[in-house]
Amino acid sequence: MPDATDEDITNLEKGIFEAGAISKMLDENLSLLDIAKKITGDKNIKIIEDCKIPTYKCDCSKEKMENALVSIGKKELENIIQEDGKAELICHFCNKKYNFNKEELENLLKKIK
Length: 113
Ligand SMILES: [Zn+2]
Known about the structure:
The protein has helices at about 5-20, 20-25, 30-40, 60-70, 75-85, 100-110; strands spanning about 85-90, 95-100. The chain is mostly helical. The protein has 2 domains: about 5-40, no CATH class; about 60-110, HSP33 redox switch-like (CBS domain Like). The chain has a two-stranded antiparallel sheet. A hairpin with a 6-residue loop joins strand 1 and strand 2. Helix 1 packs across helix 3 and helix 5 packs antiparallel against helix 6. The chain binds zinc ion.
């Protein structure tokens, strides 16, 4: 709050006192916006910046891994089935492992035809 006056700060402190402990509000699953409203008493308050911590979520799935296996081509897939009888794919982004057994690989092979 760069341009908050002393008065604003006093009001804010009063607001925090009246609103109770923030941690208690968090326990009640109030959103950050609700808490801000309680503290400031300003119902029109808006949080301009999204304060949510950005969490990286990989959107990989077994289906995508299947597509990757299909895309390597029939011959490669046949080689994997013959040599290993299974395949383990690891997502480059989240390191999640996807295992394919022989049956699954053979099903994929049918898709390529
Ligand atoms: Zn992933």
